[in-house]
Amino acid sequence: MLASKTASPEETRERVLFAAREVIARKGKRGATTREIADVAGVNEATLFRHFGSKGALVLAVAERFCGLVELRDVVAQLRGPVDADLMALGRVMLERMESQKDIIRWSFVDPGYDKDLFASTAWRPQLALHGIVVEVIERHVADGTLRGDARRLATLFMGMVFTHVLARDKFPDSDVHAEPDEALGFYVDVFLNGVRSRGRTSS
Description:
The chain is an all-alpha fold. Helices cover about 70% and strands about 0% of the residues. The protein is built from eleven helices and no strands. The protein is elongated.
């Protein structure tokens, strides 16, 4: 059944995005068809293409819509240090968003790669935008002397710890290695800031 003609363009776009996420989660990017996505959204294919232009553009729009960029920006706007508190706040948002995006993460791995030509010509790259926000926070602390090193690499390292935690927790839900979120984040922040070598000890 097609959606009501009274739906606004914004409402129709949202409905298509949610439908696309649902279908892609079940069938992967390659297996999902625009016909099925349109059916689930309650629109016709012409409407889908009018809003997104192509299936590849729709996949990118799904990644953009659900990546958590707005939430992360909102948190970053309120950060005022110290560095461990900033990292905990960032980590909480990233962990929560990644937990809610396991379906997207799954199909990204199982069905790798967006359309390369489209992706290369698209300025919007959700994961790089998220990384850029974390880089901004770390750069502040590099500038004030709290941290040292290349902010981009440090951001990649920190995001990688959170990302790995989410994947491992999903794979091994009963493992006691993966603590409750705040306890785990506290551990990652401590290792990120201080390392694991005992104070006062050097390699022989």
